[in-house]
Structures are given as structure tokens and as C-alpha cells.
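Now for a chain:

_____
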Amino acid sequence: MTVKIVTDSLSDITSDVAREIGVTVVPLTVIFGHESFLDRVTITTDEFYRRLIHETTWPTTTQPTPKAFADVYDELAGETDEILVVTLSSKLSGTYQSALSAKSMVTKKCRVEVIDSQSVAMGLGLIVIAAAKKAKEGTKLDAMVDFVHDAISRSHLIIYFDTLKYLAKGGRIGKAQGMLGALLSVKPILTVKEGEIAPVTRVRSLAAGMDYLYNVAAGYSGIDGLAVEYTTNPADADQLMHRLNAIFPKERMYRSSVSPVIGTYAGPGALALTVLEAEK
């Protein structure tokens, strides 16, 4: 039996990609006042960013319940006896804990392994996509666990922010706190390090930010996967992908909009690059 893979919606794996690679995505929830929406399920990214920019209600987010994961495990247990779950960083959300707690709630006989990716967005997504390919090749669960732990060390997420206002208000700013006092004309570039948001550098403009992201990718001698993401400006993502095509084939890159739950903290104008370094 093939190992079934589960992740959460903060992997930024769209429903189309999830179907194509055979991965189950458990959504987080974004909340506007008294309205709750399942990430990318009952609210689209376009609708979310429209509301984020134009409405005065500040959105909040919440993780899936253990039951949401347990229901998925039980359903998949009808098809396999091995499930691998890879979640976003446990330092950014309680999702990992929910996925772990759900193991004791499974009613069918099935082995479930849960891994904290220590990342988010396509930093998590490219790990999951690579794992799905391994599963299709017939790799068993123990070997899959080893593969994912290795992939975690090879996944590098770099994010250009137009503003840190949303990250600070949402309480997810982590070690980038010191950048808050920067001049408004300076744009921060952050990463996820050991599961937390961490500062990388500051740039003067979006153009300089794109240069930085391009140079990060160009600095790797071997690349297994590349992803470009945006919150509100798809043209920025297209422009960066066009440049990156010089070092990695565009048809193999993933282009994704940042999910509503991550967008709550990233805010408008953000642009992200993920490099999955080649296996050593």
C-alpha cells in the first residue's frame, strides 16, 4: 500500500496541485468578526485580500481541531495502513499539536507519523510535494520520515514584505521584532529559521527585493524545486519567475498565491521565494 500524505493549508498547496500529487490538505480557519472561513475552501484568496485591504475588521486565525485531522486519518485508513503528516512550524501555530493529538482518536488500524516542518508556505509545500513523489515511487513510511527530515534542512523560504504591520499585530513577528523601527521607505526581507520568523536584511524597494530573491536562488549550485508566491500582486511573481527561468526551468516552478491565513500576517504586497536545495 502507498503511504498517504497529509498537510495543512499553510503549505500553500492549491486544491489542483493536491489532487494531482495525491495529498490531503487540512484547512486552517480565518475569521472576520463573527464570520469564519476555511482557508481556500470557503473563502478565495482574492476575496480574502479584498477584505483585508478594504475592511476595518482585522482578521484572526485558528488551527484545525484534532477531530479535523482524525476524520482525515480515518478516511485515509480505508486506503492505506501508513500515513505521513507534515505540518507548518509548531512555533507559528498549534496545528502540529492538533495533528499529533488526533493520532489517539483514530478508530481504524493505521500507523500515523507526524512531522513538524519548522517552516510555512511553500517552505513546507515543496517538502510535501517532494515527499508525495517519493510515496508514488513506493517508498515506505520509515524511509519517508527520513526523507522529509532531510528535505527540511534543504528547504529555504525568503519573504519580501511591503510592511511588517500585519505580522506585528498578529503576534508572529518573532526575531524580526527589531526591524519594526525601520524607516517606512525600507522594506524588510525575512526568513523562517528554526521554525520562527527571523530577519535577513532590508532593501530600499521592491526592485531591490526582487534582485535579492533572485540572487538567493542563483547562489545554490543545485536546485530540486523552486516556488514563487505573492499576496496581492501576481505581476510581481510573474516577473520574478521570468528572471529565475535563467537558472531553473519555469515550467517546473510552482507559482502560488499566499493562503488567507498566512496573508493575515504577511499583508498586501508580499513576495516569497522558496528553494528546495538538491539532495547532497
